[in-house]
Amino acid sequence: MLVHGDNLPAMKALARTFAGKIRAIYLDPPFNTQRRFAEYADARESAAWAAFMRPRLACLPALLADDGAAFVEIDDTELATLIALMDDAFGANNRVSTITVVRSASTGHKAINKGPVNVADYLLVYAKDRARLRLSRQTRAREGYDWAYATWLENPGDPHDAWRYAPLGRVAARALGFASTPAASRALGAERFRGELSRFALSNAAHVVRFAQPRYEAIGVAMQRLVDRSKREPTTTLCLRRPSHKDFVVRGGNRVLFLRDKVSVAAGEPRLVEPLTNVWTDISFQGIAREGGVVFSRNKKPERLLQRVLSMSSDPEDWVLDPFAGSGTTCAVAHKMGRRFIGIEEGEHLFTLAVPRLARVVRGEDATGITRETGFGGGGGFGVFRS
């Protein structure tokens, strides 16, 4: 549903039906940049901005599910104030993360300003109850190969104590038809051979490993004993079975880690991924001017940003809320991802931007944003209400 009106009374009214039912909340409130846009004025005294935000943020915990999360995006203008307000609304102990979202490069007119160039927004992440919070693990594509994974395991299907290892470069060179690593490097050139080696490793990730020293003080007693034994038997691979975790495998006092645990397949091609951190540099804000078929200059967020937020914090059929719906990005992404959405917007652009955008999504006419990767072809529906 889309709701036209002030989000404060709207959220209070929603609480009568949706209390504890919203799995994910995303807010993109006015940043208080002291600028005026065609759709609204983003200029208040800081105290007035805080007074505007405080009661609205206070409505959020009651709407959230016990395992839900709220994400609030802001730049550094009111960042400190927003953290204090969110701490008051949710409790500082329920602050989960502050994510830096790099939205632009240090080029253009921004680069002539004195001091560091401002290229980032911030996502404050809060749980209703941190102990019950349920977030899905996310990964991102890694730039280049991780050359620590330089060892070939010949027989991973055999018992651990019979495992045999060889240099990855030598195995890859022979697979390419060369007698040795230097021969392959000379014939192909060092750069091309490294490319071929990385492709070979990704295609055979179940055979490629690295050795990493575990943090001895941070592991359990049983694992410490296995590490100690492994140092006494450095040529034998040892394993501690762990039913609810990956097996703890060690050799020479070091953990044996598999490349396969860092590989994901996209469009039929294996690629190296790494756990998502609290610095997001891989979501482009460029080229989104007409995403969704709407123009909302300097205020629209990329669909892929919302896709990541909702992938992390919700499942299909969950309810998602955006109290500052703007041009409808959150709602469009939620619909394409099979979530149920509520968007609230006071401005008339709800009717000029968000409603037509969602109508195109429902009709299967929006080919932009995340449409292709979600496989969404249209369907569903939404209602428009006034608060």
Q: What does the oligomeric state look like here? A: single chain
Number of helices: 12
Number of domains: 2
Number of beta-strand segments: 20
Tell me what portion of residues adopts beta-strand conformation: 15-25%
| CATH architecture grouping of the largest domain | 3-Layer(aba) Sandwich
* SS-derived structural category: alpha/beta
Rg measurement, Å: 26 Å
Identify the CATH homologous superfamily of the largest domain: Vaccinia Virus protein VP39
The first-to-last residue Cα distance is 12 Å
Identify the overall geometry.
Answer: elongated
- CATH class term of the largest domain: Alpha Beta
Largest sheet: 9 strands, mixed
The average pLDDT value, as a whole number, equals 94
Spans where pLDDT lies below 50 across 5 or more residues: none
Overview of the molecule:
By secondary structure, the chain is α/β, with parallel strands linked by helices. It contains 12 helices and 20 strands. It has a 9-stranded mixed sheet, with helices on both faces. Strand 15 and strand 16 form a beta hairpin. Helix 2 runs parallel beside helix 4 and helix 10 packs parallel to helix 11. The model has no long low-confidence stretch (mean pLDDT 94).
